[in-house]
Structures are given as structure tokens and as C-alpha cells.
Amino acid sequence: MVSNAPSTTAPAVELSNVVKRFGQVQAVDGLDLTVQRAQVLALLGPNGAGKTTTVEMCEGFSSPDDGAVRVLGLDPVADAAALKPRIGVMLQGGGAYPGSRAGEMLKLVASYSANPIDPDWLLRTLGLSEAVRTPYRRLSGGQQQRLALACAIVGRPEMVFLDEPTAGMDAQAKNLVWEMIDALRRDGVAILLTTHLMDEAEQLADELVIIDHGRVLASGTPSEVTSRNVEPRLCFRAPADLDLTALQATLPAGHAVSQVTPGSYQVDGEVSPRLVAAVANWCADRDVLATELRVDKRSLEDVFLDLTGRELRG
Ligand SMILES: Nc1ncnc2c1ncn2[C@@H]1O[C@H](COP(=O)(O)OP(=O)(O)OP(=O)(O)O)[C@@H](O)[C@H]1O
Predict the structure, then answer these.
(1) If we measure between CA atoms, which residue out of 243, 145, 233, 162 comes closest to residue 204?
(2) What's this model's pTM, rounded to 2 decimal places?
(3) Which UniProt keywords apply (predicted)?
(4) What tens digit of pLDDT does each residue of 225-281 get?
(5) Rounded-to-10 torsion of CA 35, 126, 176, 221
(6) 82 is in which domain, residue-wise?
(7) In 10 A of CB 35, how many CB atoms?
(8) Ligand 1 center–CA 62 separation, angstroms
(9) Which are the contacts of 28, defined by CB distance < 8 A and separation ≥ 6?
(10) Does one domain contain both 66 and 27?
(11) Do 202 and 263 belong together in one domain?
């Protein structure tokens, strides 16, 4: 149950049976979600799943139609004045004056805080030193993103909301931001991030929540989500176009072998010592060298697509 009393020991974010409608669209449909202190929670979902709507309710930009939202034990709308100084919000390209310089912008945001992080240090750490005097509109997309992150954290928030924090960034900038997120967590900051990048979610998140149509489809640690929702499978490489009908006939019942790309094969069905032996023996009997015979844990992306479907969203 979500308590009404503000509390320093309350979870960083607690959503209880939250509902949000836009006309006929049920954007969020009975969502329960908890972000603990010093934890990174990644909210995953296809386009239109309800991620932004959920995060906006946490940030106090809108109210739920039903259920309760608490951030640091407070109501994000009713207690906005008390909450705002304690949270950081990274907006996608929003809230910036196009003509103002990067360094000035960050210093302005820092000036609203009682005990800000040194803006020059933050600019250096996020690789923005050379862009200090660059007007916002002239910054590259990746630099704008990093500046938005700097603005979100300069006031030493206890809880940070990051909306696709590395969208459009090159590999170097992405690493820098990942390191910063990790450092924030080590400092006890709670982070709720939305992302479409599965590697980002796996790399950073203590908890994953996959939603679609405003409902939770799966949640847990990255390894819980991948192991609970999809069986591992047997994979191997061998010369292309093996006689799969013949191989299939020797496998234990309930297994299906297929060629994923030329020379790359997978066997769907429960992995057992008998199955591994059957594949190895069949290859050996035909003098076929099976390389990279392995039991693959399926990727988070596999799980995500299995749960949310493969069709394109609007
Ligand atoms: N202000 C609004 N008015 C009407 N419908 C809205 C509004 N905001 C969101 N929606 C609808 O609510 C649903 C959830 O949208 P939301 O933006 O939360 O999804 P999302 O998971 O953030 O998607 P994306 O990954 O594309 O950013 C969608 O069907 C969207 O069209």
C-alpha cells in the first residue's frame, strides 16, 4: 500500500494500481511499480506502451485518473514545491533557450539549488568543456543530451528521471553517461530511466520492468527477466544447408531445428544432455564439424520481442 505520510525511508518511487486515460486510450492500466533508493530501474516498452505517461505522472506533470503515485513519499502534484528540489528530470530537448550558452545554462540551473555540484566539474566530467561557450542550438544532439543530464543532476537530486538518456549518442558519449549513472547510484541516488536500448537496460538496471498497453508484462533483475521468460536453446555452427529433416528425426520429441542464417543453426525445445549428444552424434556420423556448439541464454531483446510482439507500432 502507498502511504500518505511523507517519509525519508519511503521507496524513491511507488506506483500503486495507477490508471491514466486519454479519451478512449487507456495509456496506463493498473500499473504497480517500485523504485528503491540507490537503484536503477529501467522501464522498457514499445512505442506507445505508456512509459512517458508513467514518468510524467511521477514528475508531477499530470495526475493519475486512479491509483496512487508517490515519489520520495510525496504526492508529485500536491507536494510539488517540496518535491521539485529533490528530484532531477532529464527532458528530451526540452526546457532550453536555443540562444543561451551551455555553460550559462548549467550555471543558471545550479543557481536554483542550495548545494549544487560544481558546474565546471560536471561539464568536464561529461565531456562538455569545449562546448561551454557554444549556444544550445549549435550543440550536437549528443552534447544537448549530456547538457540535459547535467542540468538534471547538478542540484544533487535524490531521485532522477531519465528519458532515453543516450538516444542518438555515439559509443564514447554513451559510455560516459553510463558511468555517470553508475556513479549516481553508488552515491545513493535512485534512477528511473526509459530506454529502447536493450544493452543499456542490461548494463545499468538493477530492475527491469517491461510494459505494454500500460500494463506490466515482466519485471525483475535483468537475469531474472531473461531466464524466467524464455528457455535457453541449443545453437551451433556447421557448413550451410545441412539435411535438417534427417537431423530432426534423430532428436528427442518436441524439438525443432532450423537454420537461422547460412551455417548457423538453432534447436528450439528443452535443452538436455540427450539433446546435446544427439546433435553432436548426428554431426559426427556424417563427418560434419559442429563449431560453437553452445547453450544460449536468450537475449533480453528476444524476451522483449516475445512478450510485446514483432509487429511495428504506430
Ligand atoms: N496527451 C495525450 N493525449 C492523447 N493521447 C496520449 C497523450 N499522451 C499519450 N497518449 C497516448 O497514450 C499512449 C501511451 O503513450 P506514451 O507516450 O506514454 O508511450 P511511450 O511508451 O512513452 O511511447 P514512446 O516509446 O513512443 O515514447 C499512446 O497511445 C499515446 O498515443
Answers:
(1) 162
(2) 0.83
(3) Antibiotic resistance, ATP-binding, Cell membrane, Membrane, Nucleotide-binding, Translocase, Transport
(4) 988 767 788 999 999 999 999 999 999 999 999 999 999 999 999 999 999 999 999
(5) 0
(6) 13-227
(7) 24
(8) 13
(9) 18, 19, 20, 50, 53, 54, 57, 64, 214
(10) yes
(11) no
**Residue 196 lies inside a defined structural domain of this protein:** yes
CA 21–ligand 1 middle distance (angstroms): 10
Per DSSP, the residues of 187-242 read: TT-EEEEE-S-HHHHHHH-SEEEEEETTEEEEEE-HHHHHHHHS--EEEEE-SSS-
**One domain for residues 211 and 249:** no
The sheet with strand 291-296 has its strands ordered as: 256-261, 264-268, 233-237, 291-296
Residues 210 and 110 in one domain: yes
* CATH at 118: 3.40.50.300
Same domain, 241 and 217: no
Grid cell listed for 220:
525483475
**Rounded Cα distance, 227 and 77, in Å:** 38
Is 25 a pocket residue for ligand 1 (Cβ < 6 Å)? Answer: yes
CA angle (176, 45, 142) in 5-degree steps:
25
Residue 50 Cβ contacting ligand 1 at under 6 Å: yes
Q: How far is the CA of 245 from the centre of ligand 1 (A)?
A: 46
The complex's ipTM works out to: 0.97
Please determine, for residue 178, whether its predicted confidence score (pLDDT) is greater than 70: yes
Q: How many domains does the chain have?
A: 2
The reply to whether 202 falls in a domain is: yes
- One-letter amino acid of 171: A
| Best residue for ligand 1 mutational test, from 28, 52, 62 (most atoms within 8 Å of Cβ) | 52
C-beta 144 within 6 A of ligand 1: no
Question: pLDDT tens digit string along 61-79?
Answer: 999 999 999 999 999 999 9
Distances (CA, A) of 306 to 95, 158, 229, 313: 37, 35, 9, 15
Any domain includes 148: yes
